[in-house]
Design goal:
Keywords: NAD, Nucleotide-binding, Oxidoreductase. It is an enzyme of class 1 (oxidoreductase). The strands form two sheets. The protein has an eight-stranded mixed β-sheet, sandwiched between helices. It has 372 residues and is of the alpha/beta class. β12 and β13 form a beta hairpin. 52% of the residues are buried. The structure holds 1,4-dihydronicotinamide adenine dinucleotide (NAI), pyruvic acid (PYR) and magnesium ion.
């Protein structure tokens, strides 16, 4: 199969979808791998590394896309990339479509087959291609929030661990999944007072057992959210309803109850965000202030630690990439019921129910699309 790896073009996105190690696996199975010149540079991989692994380097982006059957990316396609997609292409990347109607319609119009990392499942009910980047983003969320609490960033001037004689800061994490647990662990490690809210009692049980009271667990209700807004120095939004737009859990009205200079870190921004006042930001300008509250809403947080993130992401994606390359997308999805929900768009049709619901579109059943 002809496989292309473009250089990512989203603001400050330095990850790459395939490492030289992955290129070697693909080339060794007889696939033709083309990597855009300097695509791996931000993650520490040179063109020569890819060539040594059996890939060819393509300097011309038009040629790269025109010759490809399978396109491997990290971030959702940007408008210039959507314009390059045709029915010949299978695109494998993060998509987060429920947060972005123009992108959804653009992919439908392209006729391409679009498979999302974030809706692939596993036998334990997890999201194995989201989890490594959720781990990174959860761990970064506390770093980003702690920096935002500094006065120079518009924050309240609170040091999360406090000092002897001064109480630590309070961090509330909404959503105790992969992002939430990793954020809570970092906040705990820094010495903050940490609370996790979740709608899933089963998940709260796991967290309670794991942290033995060092992290408080609270069932998420309107009351609990109001208490969190009144008391917290930092709130981290980490909820997910897979494939769907995030619920808005903190409204603009509730910001008035927060302490001035408190910080909201909306990690769920890639699914539209879980705070009413959230809008996507970039690493170039990560924060903004609404009603005295600092908002950090970067939609590609792991891009900032591209070396670690690229390795973590590609460890998880490579087996799926190999299946797509070896079998073609239809057979690969037919053979694996956990890969099948990755299919979001094919030949103009949305094939993921929550995305179709977000925009009032008809959805096609992915199982009938792949046949069998
Ligand atoms: N901004 C960024 O750079 C990145 C963002 N993310 C995003 O972070 C979000 C969280 O991802 P994961 O932790 O992997 O998901 P997850 O599925 O592991 O955890 C989500 C948790 O939210 C809980 N939840 C759902 N609705 C809730 C509600 N109304 N109230 C309280 N809890 C609720 C669920 O019970 C679950 O425990 C996703 O939107 C993901 O795409 C992930 C990586 C990078
Ligand atoms: C999950 C995601 O959107 C990211 O890693 O950028
Ligand atoms: Mg994202």
């Amino acid at each position: 199969m002809k496989i292309a790896v473009p250089k990512e073009i989203k603001n400050h996105e330095y990850r790459v979808a395939l490492t030289p190690t992955g290129a070697r696996e693909l080339a060794g199975r007889g696939h033709q791998v083309s990597v855009q010149a300097s695509a791996g540079e931000g993650a520490g991989f040179t063109d020569a590394d890819y060539q040594a692994a059996g890939a060819q380097i393509e300097a011309d982006v038009d040629t790269l896309w025109c010759n490809a059957e399978l396109i491997l990316k990290v971030k959702e396609p940007q408008p210039d990339e959507v314009a390059r997609l045709t029915p010949q292409h299978t695109l494998f990347t993060y998509l987060h479509l429920a947060a972005e109607e123009p992108l959804t319609r653009g992919l439908m119009k392209s006729g391409a087959t679009c498979i999302a990392y974030e809706t692939i499942t596993d036998a334990r009910g997890g999201l194995p291609l989201l989890a490594p980047m959720s781990t990174v983003a959860g761990r970064m969320a506390v770093q980003a929030g702690a920096h935002s609490l500094e006065k120079a960033q518009g924050g309240a001037g609170v040091l999360l661990p406090g000092v002897p004689g001064v109480a630590p800061g309070k961090v509330t994490v909404i959503g105790g999944g992969v992002v939430g647990e990793n954020a809570a662990r970092m906040a705990l490690g820094l010495g903050a007072e940490v609370t996790i809210l979740d709608k899933s009692l089963a998940r709260l049980e796991v967290l309670d057992d794991r942290y033995q009271g060092r992290i408080k667990t609270v069932y998420s209700t309107a009351d609990a959210l109001e208490t969190a807004t009144r008391e917290s120095d930092m709130i981290i939004g980490a909820v997910l309803v897979p494939g769907a737009a995030a619920p808005k859990l903190i409204t603009r009205r509730m910001l008035a109850d927060m302490k001035p200079g408190s910080v909201l870190v909306d990690v769920a921004i890639d699914q539209g965000g879980c705070f009413e006042t959230s809008k996507p930001t970039t690493h170039a300008e990560p924060t903004y202030i609404v009603d005295g509250i600092v908002h950090y809403c970067v939609a590609n947080m792991p891009g900032a630690v591209a070396r670690t993130s690229t390795q973590g992401l590609t460890n998880a994606t490579l087996p799926f990439v190999l299946a797509l390359a070896d079998k073609g997308w239809q057979q690969a999805l037919r053979d694996d019921p956990h890969f099948l929900p990755g299919l979001n768009v094919h030949a103009g049709q949305v094939t993921y129910q929550a995305v179709a619901d977000a925009f009032g579109l008809e959805s096609s059943d992915p199982a009938s699309v792949v046949g069998g």
